[in-house]
What does this fold into?
Amino acid sequence: MFNYLEPPNAFYEFERIYSAEQWAKKQRWIVDYLTEYQPDVIGFQEVFSVESLKTLLHKAGYHYFAVVDEPQVIDEFIYKRPVVAIAARFAINEIAAVEHDNDVAQTIGLSADFTFSRKVLRATIAMPHIGDVDCYVVHFKSKRPMLEVEQTSQLAPEQHIIAHLTADIAGGWGSTVQRGSEATLLMLEMIKRRETTQNPMLLMGDFNNNLIDGVLSHLLTDSLRSVSAFDSKAQLAQYCLNDAWQLFVKSQKTTATEFIRTPTHYFGASSSVLDYILLSCEFDTGYDDSFYEVSDYHTYDRHLINPEFERDDQSTDHGVVMITLTLRC
It folds into this structure.
C-alpha cells in the first residue's frame, strides 16, 4: 500500500502527510485496480489507516476484512509500524495472529524476546468447491540494515566511511537473520496447523527477498535428507508449498524458458521479484487429488514501468501479483 495513512496523520516523520488531493488519488488508484481485476481475495501490506481501508473495500464489494494488529503511534499523529490486512468476497471463518514456538526459536539461536517484525495474519476463508483455506499474509523484514550510524561531525571522512560500512555489513546481516528466521518459524507453524486441520494453505505477501537465494529457499522444501524420496513423497507433498509462478508454468504444459517472470520491485537500474504467492498441493496439477490449477499469473506493473502522473502519482512501489485458480475437470 506504500504508506496507506489518512491525513492529517503523518507516517514516520512530521512532514510526511498526504494532502487531500494526494489521499483521494491514492484511494482512487486502489479502487481502479480492484474494479479492473476483481480479485476474490487480496492481501495488503503497509496499512496504517485500518478503518479507512475497511470502509473503502466494503464499498468496492469486499464485505470480509481482517487485521490482527494495529500501527504504532509515536506522537499524537505520527505513525510507524504499519500492519498487514486481508479482504475477501468469501466468508472469513477464523482470524489469528501467528505465534511462533519460543522453544524452537531459542534452539536455533534466537533471543527469548524474538518477535516477527510485523505480525503474520492467518485468515481461514471459505473458498468455493474446496472449503476452508488457511490464507497467510506476510511482510517479512526489509533489507534495510538494522544498525544506523549516529550523525556527527566529529568523524574524519575515512572514519565516516568505515562507520557506514560497518553498519551496512552487520546491520544488513541482522536484517537477513530476522527475515530468514521469520520465514522459518512461520513455516513450522503452518506445518503444525496443517497437521491439525488439513486445510489447504496459501501464503502471500512482500517477502523482501528473492525466494531462491538461500535465505528463504526453505519455504519451498520438497525433499528430506534423512528419508528416502520413495517413502516420503506422498506424505511430504501434504506439507510443502509451491511457488504459484512455477505452478502456472506447469499448467501451461510447456517449458519455463518460454516465460519470463516480471519483477515486482525496481531499485535504480536493478529489478527483482520480492512479492509471492505460495500454494499447497491442492493447487498443484502434479498432485493427484488437487482441486485447482493456476491457470493465470499476472504482475500488475504499469505504474512502475509506464507511470502517468495523474493516474499513478500515489500508487505503490511494488508490482501487484495476482493468480487465477481454475477448478480442474
